[in-house]
Amino acid sequence: MGAALLLVASLFTLDPVGSVDLQAEVRSGTRFRMLDQDPRPNEPIPVDASRRVAELGVAPRLALANDARLRLYLAYTPSVNVPFEAAPPGTNQGSAPSPLDRTSFLNNAELRAERDWGFWSMRAGASATLGRLDPLAGGPPAVAVTTTGRIPYQAWSLNAGVTAIPWQRGTLTVDGHLSQGGGDGSLAERVLPVQQELRIASALDHLLTRRDTFGATLTFVGARLDRVDPAVPAGGERIDAATLQGGPHWLRVLSRQFSLRLAGGAAAAYEVSSANQWSRIGPWGLAALAYQPGGLRPSLTLSVGLEPTIDRLTGSLSYRGLVEARSEWVPTRDWRLEASANAGVLEPWLGFDGQVATSTWIGGGSVYAGRELWRNVLIGASVAGIWQDSGRQDLSSFREVVAALELRAILQGPAADTTRQPGGAGAPAGGRR
Length: 433
What we know:
The chain is mostly beta strands. It has a single domain, classed as Porin (Beta Barrel), CATH 2.40.160. The chain is 4% helix and 62% strand. It is built from three helices and 18 strands. It has helices spanning 2-9, 99-102, 186-191; strands at 20-38, 50-66, 70-85, 104-116, 120-133, 151-164, 170-183, 194-207, 212-228, 236-253, 258-272, 277-291, 299-310, 317-329, 335-348, 360-374, 377-390, 397-412. The protein has an 18-stranded antiparallel beta barrel. The model is unreliable at 1-13, 137-148, 351-355, 415-419 and 421-433 (pLDDT under 50).
């Protein structure tokens, strides 16, 4: 990883450091989660299928940033999350782990660099997370597991990108992202399998008229999942999956307030596991209508899409069809309101070839409100819910509701705003897809 950081740093011309700003803030909050999980087909109801967890969290952040031509940002964020939960139904209350035994400790470090040369710019970054967590109470989004103890966890990521203007009305953007994350150790990997992912996305746009922008996109996603399973003779299995999708897109400005985006094309997929090996080609598409009135009026975006996706826990490839609505409203300088809702279906890719396929229905929604109490002190509250109904052997059906309250205090740095930061104590839970 150190060699990769040196390679990334070599992409930039060294500049004077410029003025350096120290940024410090503290986030604290509480979350309450309700999870009801149904048994998988032909399986008994798990003991911990229903859980009610209250979580208290504190996450101070210390960062350094400069304003030179080579912009650098370095941050360190330790976080502590203490869950409180009664023993699952069917177990002895006295046998439940204490909150201290399940307290999550995570350390996160982040480095970003940006440089602008006028007609083109470059950016790069790296981050690492190390610690111990309870996957339900303090775990990252997109984790559908239930366990009664904390496990070792580690993750890292590298990213780099470039934006260029090859001609007067053209823009070329290329971004790459390499990451790895999961449990640390054979027992932890059974709960959080280790997954490696490489994502490369490119887009070429041309401003044809004042209202029309045409372009094309090409995206590659490759993932490797190592699952530990003592029931398998080899002790587990490795799944490699990849998707490549590309096609044209069109952005039309309908009026000062409305815009329409259409995109689509072909997607190819490839998967190799101990059970099978196959490749497929299918369509993908996206349509989005945005209403941006400006000022103090709320905005609204409606979208419908169909695309391939790689499951975080099983490594299997599926088609995902999703309908989504999002709205943001800043009625005053101190307030910010957000709301979203979505519903869709996951269909195993093999089902498109006439084989038997079991659909998985998914959905969710969230509401968030944030207000600046006084300078550099913000409070935010959110309620989010997600659900999944599946008849597949490798996926569970569940319903989850999360209520959160967050207090953010900026001790030193830029003035506070009401923008909700991802992963904060007041952020709605991510969907477990």
